[in-house]
């Protein structure tokens, strides 16, 4: 799925302003994480014109200078954080922590780490929006699902929407990963509307730009006015590649996790809503399962 | 893995190294290196996890590149001087190329980038083989060509490796990556001294193999791959916790443990060779490495983690029916310092 923020923008504005806010790398599209999607790596529906503004029209010196300052500051911080400890925090914290809240929605800036997408990119009619919830303490993903397939002759199914976190970027947009080796459970506090969602974790893959493999598990929301605490052990996540669940399963390695996301595609047309308070990881001492799915030999020797 | 197949791979590993040891012709030495690479590939890819396969691929590509460059340089040398014998390299350009290829094979800076990621993708036993056995063959070649090598290049590579190994390991919590950076640092020490006293390189290599074997076997016994899991080992095996802490300090080069021996002798030799600044810089870089070894000791033995258990694997207690290797290597890695004169006479040739 293309990582495009589906907002109320027009086609051209949607292309150029891949992000609604002024992005520091807008003067240098090559530096932005969305470069490939801008240049044509995302899905372009057959018949749609190829949109491309040449580089000399996008040049902005001030933004470039700010970008350089930001990246050099990040680089300096990366160098100096080594003296403090792993991941820039003291070792004692790393050894003692049993829970860590990774994403918390407390203010408009927290929404910048997330990307909302729906089947509008392939020409479908679902809509999905992301906004801050009440009191700026939660985020609300809402919209309408419509499983009418787009009439382009090649798409058969439609009707999905997804919320995905943006991967961590270090200095000069280098890849950084979440290191969750001290933990074994995902803890979410959500308030859904009874629909079944899928939680997708994207870990570091074999090739550097491979986006095929994802580890998923189900999230059944209860609906209703009460908050729901969901704890899913990482051993339950199963591997699927390009949407197909693989036979050769293996456990999710937690030392390089890139993104987490939630997808809705339950073929039920109509409005939906999901409110998220926080997403955390914790270490459940009583959970001893390594991997929930049997890995057996498909062609055993006789 | 099927025991017959495993035997074939392990014996091939032995064959490759032995071939390189026994060869005086560059082609045979190259063949030994290639056999080593190919034999360890299936061992690395045993786990059908994409990151394990990624580590295998990265390893294969770097080693194959290095072997190809060695072949290229030796062929150039044979073409220009007509000499295929290893110890009679005379062309300085080709010998520099071979040195760079060997540093890629060993994982010396600035060609060290593959080592932490590759080690991270392997299980501990294969990581042990990679860190110890696979270093022997390239070092055999290095020792043989050392008289003709450019000492500036060697010192640059050595010092850079010690600093990179120290700096890179500072932020790590994954034990395999820590051991990878420790390998880079130790290899740097070995390479610094190869021009002046090759026997010290050999001594350093053997002591390093001993200490790394201890470290890997300890981690394997404790089924730990991260620092947090190591922190709870005091609840499981207090004896190993105590000994392993000392073994890590030995890796860091603290007297009166064995690891001090190579560092002391290397620093002494460097000073004798009128290189006190280099000796100072090397000793300072050893402090960086010592910091992360100390951090592991701190996590393991000097603090009692309030958590009872952080890992799943120890629940399935595999019977460690043969602790002989771990106990022998840990004793050697702690107690050999008083035997320094004996070892020196054994290795001086």
UniProtKB/TrEMBL annotation, chain A:
<dbReference type="GO" id="GO:0005739">
    <property type="term" value="C:mitochondrion"/>
</dbReference>
<dbReference type="InterPro" id="IPR039131">
    <property type="entry name" value="NDUFAF1"/>
</dbReference>
<comment type="subunit">
    <text>Part of the mitochondrial complex I assembly/MCIA complex that comprises at least the core subunits TMEM126B, NDUFAF1, ECSIT and ACAD9 and complement subunits such as COA1 and TMEM186. Interacts with ECSIT. Interacts with ACAD9. At early stages of complex I assembly, it is found in intermediate subcomplexes that contain different subunits including NDUFB6, NDUFA6, NDUFA9, NDUFS3, NDUFS7, ND1, ND2 and ND3. Interacts with TMEM70 and TMEM242.</text>
</comment>
<keyword id="KW-0143">Chaperone</keyword>
<keyword id="KW-0496">Mitochondrion</keyword>
<comment type="function">
    <text>As part of the MCIA complex, involved in the assembly of the mitochondrial complex I.</text>
</comment>
<dbReference type="Pfam" id="PF08547">
    <property type="entry name" value="CIA30"/>
</dbReference>
<dbReference type="InterPro" id="IPR008979">
    <property type="entry name" value="Galactose-bd-like_sf"/>
</dbReference>
<comment type="similarity">
    <text>Belongs to the CIA30 family.</text>
</comment>
<dbReference type="InterPro" id="IPR013857">
    <property type="entry name" value="NADH-UbQ_OxRdtase-assoc_prot30"/>
</dbReference>
<protein>
    <recommendedName>
        <fullName>Complex I intermediate-associated protein 30, mitochondrial</fullName>
    </recommendedName>
</protein>
<feature type="domain" description="NADH:ubiquinone oxidoreductase intermediate-associated protein 30">
    <location>
        <begin position="103"/>
        <end position="276"/>
    </location>
</feature>
TrEMBL record, chain B:
<feature type="transmembrane region" description="Helical">
    <location>
        <begin position="178"/>
        <end position="197"/>
    </location>
</feature>
<feature type="transmembrane region" description="Helical">
    <location>
        <begin position="324"/>
        <end position="347"/>
    </location>
</feature>
<feature type="transmembrane region" description="Helical">
    <location>
        <begin position="274"/>
        <end position="294"/>
    </location>
</feature>
<dbReference type="GO" id="GO:0008137">
    <property type="term" value="F:NADH dehydrogenase (ubiquinone) activity"/>
</dbReference>
<feature type="transmembrane region" description="Helical">
    <location>
        <begin position="203"/>
        <end position="222"/>
    </location>
</feature>
<feature type="domain" description="NADH dehydrogenase subunit 2 C-terminal">
    <location>
        <begin position="290"/>
        <end position="344"/>
    </location>
</feature>
<dbReference type="InterPro" id="IPR003917">
    <property type="entry name" value="NADH_UbQ_OxRdtase_chain2"/>
</dbReference>
<dbReference type="Pfam" id="PF00361">
    <property type="entry name" value="Proton_antipo_M"/>
</dbReference>
<keyword id="KW-0812">Transmembrane</keyword>
<dbReference type="InterPro" id="IPR010933">
    <property type="entry name" value="NADH_DH_su2_C"/>
</dbReference>
<dbReference type="GO" id="GO:0005743">
    <property type="term" value="C:mitochondrial inner membrane"/>
</dbReference>
<keyword id="KW-0520">NAD</keyword>
<keyword id="KW-0472">Membrane</keyword>
<keyword id="KW-0830">Ubiquinone</keyword>
<dbReference type="GO" id="GO:0006120">
    <property type="term" value="P:mitochondrial electron transport, NADH to ubiquinone"/>
</dbReference>
<dbReference type="Pfam" id="PF06444">
    <property type="entry name" value="NADH_dehy_S2_C"/>
</dbReference>
<comment type="similarity">
    <text>Belongs to the complex I subunit 2 family.</text>
</comment>
<keyword id="KW-0999">Mitochondrion inner membrane</keyword>
<keyword id="KW-0679">Respiratory chain</keyword>
<dbReference type="InterPro" id="IPR050175">
    <property type="entry name" value="Complex_I_Subunit_2"/>
</dbReference>
<feature type="transmembrane region" description="Helical">
    <location>
        <begin position="57"/>
        <end position="79"/>
    </location>
</feature>
<keyword id="KW-1133">Transmembrane helix</keyword>
């Amino acid at each position: 799925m293309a990582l495009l923020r589906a907002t109320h923008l027009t086609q051209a504005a949607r292309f150029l302003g891949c992000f609604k806010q002024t992005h520091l790398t807008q003067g240098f599209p090559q530096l932005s994480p969305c470069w490939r999607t801008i240049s044509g790596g995302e899905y372009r529906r057959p018949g749609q014109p190829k949109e491309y503004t040449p580089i000399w029209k996008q040049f902005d010196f001030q933004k470039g200078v700010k970008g350089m300052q930001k990246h050099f500051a990040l680089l300096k911080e990366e160098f100096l954080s080594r003296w403090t400890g792993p991941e820039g925090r003291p070792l004692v914290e790393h050894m003692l922590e049993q829970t860590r809240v990774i994403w918390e929605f407390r203010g408009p800036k927290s929404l910048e780490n997330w990307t909302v997408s729906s089947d509008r990119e392939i020409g479908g009619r679902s809509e999905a929006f992301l906004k801050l919830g009440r009191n700026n303490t939660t985020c609300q993903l809402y919209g309408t699902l419509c499983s009418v397939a787009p009439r382009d002759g090649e798409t058969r199914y439609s009707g999905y929407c997804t919320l995905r976190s943006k991967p961590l970027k270090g200095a000069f947009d280098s890849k950084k990963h979440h290191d969750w080796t001290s933990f074994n459970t995902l803890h979410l506090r959500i308030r859904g509307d009874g629909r079944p969602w899928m939680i997708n974790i994207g870990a570091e893959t074999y090739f550097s730009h491979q986006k095929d493999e994802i580890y998923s598990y189900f999230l059944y929301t209860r609906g209703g006015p009460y908050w729901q605490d969901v704890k899913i052990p990482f051993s339950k996540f199963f591997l699927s590649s390009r949407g197909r669940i693989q036979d050769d399963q293996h456990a999710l390695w937690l030392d390089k996790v890139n993104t987490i996301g939630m997808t809705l595609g339950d073929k039920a047309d109509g409005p939906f809503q999901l409110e998220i308070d926080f997403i955390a990881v914790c270490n459940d001492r009583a959970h001893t399962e390594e991997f929930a799915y049997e890995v057996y030999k498909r062609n055993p020797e006789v | 893995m099927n025991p017959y197949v495993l035997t074939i791979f392990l014996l091939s590993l032995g064959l490759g190294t032995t071939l390189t040891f026994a060869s005086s012709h560059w082609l045979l030495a190259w063949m030994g290196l290639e056999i080593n690479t190919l034999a360890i590939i299936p061992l690395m890819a045993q786990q059908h996890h994409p990151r394990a396969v990624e580590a295998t691929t990265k390893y294969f590509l770097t080693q194959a590149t290095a072997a190809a460059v060695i072949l290229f340089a030796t062929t150039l040398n044979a073409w220009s001087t007509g000499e295929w014998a290893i110890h009679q390299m005379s062309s300085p350009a080709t010998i520099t190329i071979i040195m760079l290829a060997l540093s890629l094979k060993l994982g010396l800076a600035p060609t060290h980038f593959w080592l932490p990621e590759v080690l991270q993708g392997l299980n501990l036993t294969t990581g042990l083989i990679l860190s110890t056995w696979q270093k022997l063959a390239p070092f055999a070649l290095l020792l043989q060509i050392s008289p003709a090598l450019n000492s500036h290049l060697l010192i640059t590579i050595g010092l850079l490796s010690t600093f990179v190994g120290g700096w890179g390991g500072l932020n790590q919590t994954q034990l395999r990556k820590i051991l990878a950076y420790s390998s880079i640092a130790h290899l740097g020490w070995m390479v610094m001294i190869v021009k002046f006293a090759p026997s010290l390189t050999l001594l350093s290599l053997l002591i390093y193999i001993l200490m790394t074997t201890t470290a890997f076997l300890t981690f394997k016994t404790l089924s730990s791959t991260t620092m947090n899991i190591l922190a709870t080992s005091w609840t499981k095996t207090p004896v190993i916790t105590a000994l392993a802490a000392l073994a890590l300090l030995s890796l860091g080069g603290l007297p009166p443990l064995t690891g001090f021996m190579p560092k002391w002798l290397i620093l002494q030799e460097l000073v004798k060779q009128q290189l006190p600044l280099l000796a100072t810089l090397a000793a300072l870089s050893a402090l960086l490495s010592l910091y992360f070894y100390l951090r592991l000791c701190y996590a393991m033995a000097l603090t009692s983690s309030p958590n009872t258990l952080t890992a799943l694997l120890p629940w399935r207690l595999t019977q460690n029916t043969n602790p002989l290797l771990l106990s022998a290597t840990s004793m050697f890695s702690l107690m050999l310092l008083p035997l320094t004169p004996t070892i020196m006479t054994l290795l001086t040739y």
